[in-house]
Amino acid sequence: MGRTHAIHGFIAGLTAGQLGGANAPTTLVLGMLGAGAAIAPDLDHPNATASKSLGPISWAASAGIRAISRRVYAATKTRYDRPNANGHRGITHTWPGALTLGTFFGGSCALAELFGGPPAGRWATVVVLWLFLVWALRGLPPKGSHIQDYLTAAVLTVVALRVLAAAYPTGLPVLLGGTIALGAYVHAIGDSLTDYGAPLAFPFVVGGQRWYPCGPPKPLRFKAGKTVENLLVFPASLAGAAAALVWLAGAWPRIVHAVSVAL
Q1: d(CA 96, CA 89)
Q2: pLDDT per residue over 54-109, tens digit each?
Q3: Disulfide check for 106: which of 58, 77, 173, 239 has CB 3.0–4.6 Å away?
Q4: Are 249 and 242 in contact (CB under 8 A)?
Q5: What is the DSSP letter of 198?
Q6: Which of 9, 14, 15 is nearest to 40 (CA)?
Q7: Contact present, 198 and 215 (Cβ < 8 Å)
Q8: Dist. CA 200–CA 189, nearest whole Å
Q9: DSSP assignment of 76-91, as one string?
Q10: From residue 137, how far is each of 3, 34, 61, 114 by CA, in Å?
Q11: Distance CA 139, CA 164 (A)
């Protein structure tokens, strides 16, 4: 569901920017960050887009996160929870996991500036922006080559840093961390729509299960990467992204007026 997750994260970032009163360039940057963040939780799967995006580096990160996820699951499961030997859809697919992800990356930027001064904070921000923009480009269609996405992300990072620094001369780590946490949790919500579900209620116990697979009624769920997602969910998500961009462009009043005149 990589591309679908990325689209959902893009919509979430755009919406957050719009509701927060950010200008259009800043909102677009938040949309791209949200798209990358919505890819990140699947680092707990070795074949996910995020796990394969940076070669040995992301593979090693995936292995570490899978190990953590397995340990957390084993330590917290109840006797009614289903088995989860590989750690997938574990702690990274929960709200505490999303908050931890946002705190880690946002906090890294803040700590770098605190102990190394503004230059160190700026470089840490560059690394975080580049990483999540790479994930966004790897997830959003159309997908290019790895090298192409790395170079494109580098250019976008320069632009994004200028845009964000102008709009938020202070508090940038909080903005980055909040957007990343939002995108990550949007991923979990998207997974809850599938037949496997997602542990949205963790760490609270539901029906005797701490890792209860939350989601709509079984008949309304779909299999990830199969017909319903490809022919219905993904196209509908693209339409939602287009609507969010139209909203960002401020074109809704003109569209409503044109439709009313036509009718």
Answers
A1: 13
A2: 999 999 999 999 999 999 999 999 999 999 988 999 999 999 999 999 999 999 99
A3: 173
A4: no
A5: B
A6: 9
A7: yes
A8: 7
A9: H--TTSPP-SS-TTSG
A10: 10, 12, 19, 31
A11: 22
